[in-house]
Amino acid sequence: MSPEKFLIIDGNSLVHRAFHAIPPLSTSDGTVTNAVYGFTNMLFKVLRELEPTYIAVAFDKGKITFRHATYTDYKAKRKATPPELRSQFPLLKEVLHHMRICTLELENFEADDIIGTLAGFADGKGIESIVLTGDRDALQLVSPRVRVLLTKKGITEMEEYDEGRVWDRYGVSPPQIIDIKGLMGDTSDNIPGVPGIGEKTALKLIQEYGTIENVIAEANKLPTRWRNKIIEHRDLAQLSKKLATIDRRVPLNMDMEQFKWPGPDYPALLDIFSKLEFKTLVHNIINKAGLEDNKNGQDELKTYCAKYRRVSSEEKLSQIRSNCIASGMVALDLSGTREAGINYAALSISPVGTTYLLPVKEQVAALDLVADICSDPRVKVICADGKEVLWLLHRHNRTLRNLDFDAQLAAYLLNPSMSQNSLADLALQYLQLVLPTGGEAATAARVDTLWQLKQLLQQKLVETGMDRLYYEVELPLVTVLADMEMEGVAVDPQILCNMAEETGRQIEGLVLEIYRLAGEEFNINSPKQLGDILFNKMGLPVIKKTKTGFSTDASVLEELAPNHAIVDKILAYRQLAKLKSTYIDGLFGLINPTSGRIHTTFHQDVTATGRLSSSNPNLQNIPIRLEEGRRIRKVFVPHRPGNLILTADYSQIELRILAHMSGDANLIGAFKKGQDIHTRTAAEVFNVPMEQVTPEMRSRAKAVNFGIVYGISDYGLSRDIKVPRAEAGKYIRSYFERYSGVKEFIDRKISEAREKGYTTTLLNRRRYLPDIVSRNRVTRAFGERTAINTPIQGSAADIIKLAMVRIHGELKRRHMATKMILQVHDELIFDVPPDELTEVKKLVREYMENALHLDVPLVVDLKLGPNWYDVRKVP
């Protein structure tokens, strides 16, 4: 399941942008519609890409706000809203109503204040927010759980800002955006700022002193040209900061359920889009929802209504329990949140039986019934999202013993590229049913459709040959991942604090060294100023330019590094600054205050290859190529004093899978003999004995080995190992001469994918590849690389998932205290008591190395230590 996301939209900002970006549009009766059309298209694009769980749109209400009481000239220079735009607000709100999206506005407050309050409320619930706006003021809201999508050009281009991006762009933290605006002012809002202080100076002062208050306190130390301005206008600076600060305490009566997005009311949308003469949107709705144009006032697709019976008497609850046990199978849907628990449950005993609605929140007996059914091994349970059901039950200290079918997981397996797989989406796609939204009727309808979906999706799994993968790997993995999330991983906050301080000092040292090498101080985070220093002042060769000047992106700096020592320092500065803001500082906000642990979320239904991903934090993205990045792992420690961290990492699993799938005798022989595969490849490619292979030869052979798995070209390899393209091409040709079976495998996989339209893993996981028959050469080449890589990477994912399921089951069966706490790529991490260490090492190695029989041995490297960083190899 994807993580819960709250999309918060700045209604005023986006409608103004749409109005100015879209040429005038009007209906045949003269109704102006361009802003509504542009806003709606932008909304659909964002919904497709983000798949939010919750949505709200905030609007301004009236021209006077609490800020006018502080400064009467606030926004005094704003032009009046054009009548042709003002008339579109009611139309837009009607569209949002039919989209079933909550809208908010409140007298005396701006939309920004509502947005800030909503984001803070969601943060308190552990929910990530994405703010969509065209107003840079919102950047002050960015935090570990709040990102900002800033609209750029027109209505299609957007730029995402997390803490790292704010730092990269401005060289300050998000809260300091307020201080910058306080100094420089804002002409659009008529915020005065300090006269004579522009953005460049404001940035420099805040980067050096941190806050406006510090700038004022240290004003006497400033150069004369700034000192006098700051001292004379300090009151204006403080006033401007106050005006620029978003109020995050707007008195709203909030509950996350009111923002939960159930999906659009398609028939109602079809009606209003027809009236507004949005022909493209009408066509899209018809295709999406299977609706017929309602020219005759009739819709083929209707909201599905399920009959249900609300049960509260203990006598009836007891009877339902008996019926469930006798049936041996139930469909179950739970309404609630992880924070508040279950509100009510709906269950159905058969496809044609009665659906019962149980008021769990109101009645303990109803909760007991749900818990008894879920924990009874005799009763198989069908649900839409098994992991979420496990979490909701966990909130009440209950569990689910016999998960029989997870509809969303089955749909993902059948189409891993599907962007929307909520139960409402599945009902619409597979059953042509529109589910009701909100309340008891919605929960009853959801559980009623589960029977139909199970029958249909189960049949498709059998037809595609993925039923074994589903029932032996993916479905049991749901419980494994839920247990890992609930267990969490302990974090040592003191180590994290020390790391933050040390990295901060390193950054400060790099800044001083960069200034020394440049011969002056400048804003290192400003591409314009950096370009001026490197190319105008220092005369370094210009690699490429952008529309606004010299390019100073990472690829340019890496190419320039041999030319001057300052370039390496700038690269190191960027890496450390992002590392600190995004990862080190970001981890603080993810520590659960109750458990003291980080409970990362594992996503089983996101990647097209079948690999797991994670968020909060994204463990796959911790930059372990940097020593400083690897050291972040030091903060992850055992749960209990005396316990140890055990890591188990598959050695070169993708190359071993390549050997097995290709059947190449040379490659298989090397692995069976236990040879170093990179040294063996170097010997083959460079035609020298293995004992004469140099470190440089081995390094290049390693790049070739792993490059082959990803379908690398001679151009790509030449960039990776920094040799001429012709030489890289020679290495690849030499590789294929020595490992001809690999070349045959690659050609075969591309041919099969082109013929079938998909490629498969060892356990028959499918990935559909429409790109492979594209007329566009670049697109087609991507499809071909995917046809090579997916069977290998996907098989590696299948193998480690299979191992996880078996290890988890064995740890439970033996009643061991050892916990599997993390999974990253090909590595599993365990929290192990010392007295179980010998047994666990043997168990883990046995189940990982024998997860699936291959023609070459699977090898697992075990490491042990007091934390995830300080682990050392053990037998």
TrEMBL record:
CDD domains: DNA_pol_A_pol_I_C, DNA_polA_I_Bacillus_like_exo, H3TH_53EXO, PIN_53EXO. Pfam families: 5_3_exonuc, 5_3_exonuc_N, DNA_pol_A, DNA_polI_exo1. The keyword Nucleotidyltransferase applies. It catalyses: DNA(n) + a 2'-deoxyribonucleoside 5'-triphosphate = DNA(n+1) + diphosphate. GO terms for molecular function: 5'-3' exonuclease activity; DNA binding; DNA-directed DNA polymerase activity. The keyword Transcription does not apply. Residues 629-836 form the DNA-directed DNA polymerase family A palm domain. Its EC number is 2.7.7.7. Residues 4-262 form the 5'-3' exonuclease domain. Gene3D superfamilies: 3.30.70.370, 5' to 3' exonuclease, C-terminal subdomain, 5'-nuclease, Ribonuclease H-like superfamily/Ribonuclease H, Taq DNA Polymerase, Chain T, domain 4. It comes from the Bacteria. In addition to polymerase activity, this DNA polymerase exhibits 5'-3' exonuclease activity. Single-chain monomer with multiple functions. Belongs to the DNA polymerase type-A family. This is DNA polymerase I.
